[in-house]
Model the fold of this input.
Amino acid sequence: MTDIERIYTINLRKEWLKEPRAKRAKRAIKTVRDFVGRHTKAKEVKISKGVNEMIFVHGFKKPPGKIKVKVKGDAIAVEVRLIDEPEEKKMEKKSVSIREKISGKKPEEPEKEQPTKTKINKEVEKRNKHENSKA
Done:
């Protein structure tokens, strides 16, 4: 399979002008998906957070007229990003030790201290004293 890496300038205005104001950004997203799918022949097109934010920068009624994007991927799936947008680092999965797998125990997490009624009452009393001293 061949890897695809291309830069496109997509004209959104000619498409979103056909829609009512409230649906223009949605139409712009759909236009990006259709354009990239048509030009790369990919079955799945993923739009990055940066492209989404760029389209919604002025709200859903006024998307930009043109957008310049970088497309990366293969024939099955491609990802659409802004040209200057950094690639997101995927989080590494925490490895589970063999002993934990055998015993079936999950790693222990520190317990969070739950506020008790006495602590809550003390905080309320402090607040009330502070408010009464102002008056």
Observations:
- The longest strand covers residues 4-11.
- Residues 117-134 form the longest helix (18 residues).
